[in-house]
Amino acid sequence: MTGELTTESQEGSLSRKLLSLFLITYIFLYMFLVPAFGIIPLYDYVITYGAQALNFVSIWVGKTLLSIPHEKLEMPNSEEGIINYVKLISLVGLSLIISLTIFLFTKKQKNHTKLYSFVLLYARYFLGLTMLGYGFSKVYDGQFVAPGLHTLEEPFGNFSPIGVLWTFMGYSKTYAAFTGLFEIVGGFLLFFRRTTALGALIIIGVMINVVMLNFCFDVTVKL
Fold this sequence. Notes:
Mean pLDDT: 84
Oligomer: single chain
Radius of gyration: 22 Å
């Protein structure tokens, strides 16, 4: 009986270990190919070649495994383009292959504390810099601008959902700066270990609202 419990416990531990490896691998790859750290020397080159490699793999996956017509995969790139959804599927597959390889070569290790710590640190700074970028763009009118004469003269019925949102946000500089300030504060708190939890809680609150706006007003950054 004890032997059976021990075996089940070991199998459960191995499953959790593999799942954890898969999650941190996926999170790292997803962040690594986004140019949030472009200020680091040569990082832009790494991103460029990495993005090209992912695009090549994604086109192969789309045509070969998903039977998506080539012309649809080669459509002008946009946030809502079908190629970007295929890239997510490709990232999942690559993450599974890489995590499984790491798992097989380090099967005797009890955990991967250093690897987890590195990805967590990378995620903290990645998200922190991203929040600062969006926050300051709201505070200094970079993301939303006051509606111009052309916008004010356009019939409301002609507005797209995203046009309504952008006009709404641009109308009040105070409100845009208010939301941006919370993004700045939350992002800044992520840079310090003792304030990470507080920064994460602030960002969760801010980003729930952002996600709902993106989906409800058809903003083309749903991914």
